Amino acid sequence: MIEFDPFYQLIAESPLNPWLDTLPHQLAHWRQKRERDDIKKWLNIIDNLPQVTPSRLDLLHRVHAEITPEFSDHQREEIKKLLRGLMPWRKGPFSLYGVNVDTEWRSDWKWQRILPHLSSLEGRTVLDVGCGNGYHLWRMLGSGVRLAIGIDPMPLFFCQFEAVRKLLAADQRAHLLPLVTEQLPALKAFDTVFSMGVLYHRRSPLEHLYQLKDQLVSGGELVLETLVVTGDKHHVLVPGDRYAQMRNVYFIPSPQALQSWLAKCGFIDINTVNIVSTTLDEQRRTDWINSASLADFLDPHDHSKTIEGYPAPLRVTLIARKP
């Protein structure tokens, strides 16, 4: 059973203290709802993983842990078998004591693209909204954050994060909470807020931007990464039933329209720092997902289009500041 009390104690004497008015009740409710066979199975996997203190840990260049003396082949196979019980692994990769979790996404590539454009993360308190299994939380620790908190409602992602955290000596500088953005009070306590791959899943994108703004301190930095389409400042794609086989995609703006949205929500110093097409090398099927991936979602005869005929995924990263 995962206990949240250490996190409550961690934030009790911090600017995040007001969160304790709502958070324990929300997590107790989540725990009650999730008493199902699937999460019990995943929590059992975590219980059976060894708690390891790595002798060498690299979070700056990758998520890579080693131990001396090395694990035996049998021990590595046991860890691998347990981690494969938490499939599919979407975000990564992870290299843990000789077990290489080859995830669907090369999330390290995204991190390397955005890192040069960020204000220094050294000593910052950071929030990652819709963080998946928390891969980027570990990379944030590698960049020197004081505290990295991720939120994502998916029970599997929560369990994947806790599995990695146990294998990395339960580092108390990183925490993932099974929440959605709408459950956050206006904390106004984070120096940097990340929202990567979330905005197009929101029925009300402007409301999402206001929610992100409400988490930032004055002068805090928003890092926003999302799907876009080419066009002028008035151009927004509203897909039909599916986009690249995803059902819950609502609005895909042009980069210029997205800048206008951010300005409308009161952000300043808005900069587009990169625009890249998602390639079949960055998102692909691997032995760690056992399901379809980007190649299956594109027109087989024209990879510039999705299977539904929309423009293929194009991603932008913008950085903005709260006044």
UniProtKB/TrEMBL annotation:
Q: What InterPro entries does this protein's entry cite?
A: CmoB, Mo5U34_MeTrfas-like, SAM-dependent_MTases_sf
**Which SUPFAM superfamilies would you find in this protein's record?**
S-adenosyl-L-methionine-dependent methyltransferases
**Which Gene3D superfamilies is this protein grouped with?**
Vaccinia Virus protein VP39
A Gene Ontology BP annotation from the UniProt entry: methylation
Q: Which domain of life is it from?
A: Bacteria
Query: Which molecular function term from Gene Ontology is one that the record holds?
Result: transferase activity, transferring alkyl or aryl (other than methyl) groups
Task: Recite the UniProt keywords alphabetically.
Answer: Methyltransferase, Transferase, tRNA processing
The question of whether Transferase is a record keyword is answered with yes
E.C. designation(s): 2.5.1.-
Spell out the reaction equation it catalyses: carboxy-S-adenosyl-L-methionine + 5-hydroxyuridine(34) in tRNA = 5-carboxymethoxyuridine(34) in tRNA + S-adenosyl-L-homocysteine + H(+)
Per UniProt, carboxy-S-adenosyl-L-methionine binds at 91, 105, 110, 130, 196, 200, 315
At the top of the EC hierarchy, this enzyme's class is transferase
What the record says about family reads: Belongs to the class I-like SAM-binding methyltransferase superfamily. CmoB family.
Its function? Catalyzes carboxymethyl transfer from carboxy-S-adenosyl-L-methionine (Cx-SAM) to 5-hydroxyuridine (ho5U) to form 5-carboxymethoxyuridine (cmo5U) at position 34 in tRNAs.
Instruction: Describe its partners and assembly state.
Output: Homotetramer.
**What is the protein name stated in its UniProt record?**
tRNA U34 carboxymethyltransferase
Upper lineage is: Bacteria, Pseudomonadati, Pseudomonadota, Gammaproteobacteria, Enterobacterales
- Gene assigned in the entry: cmoB
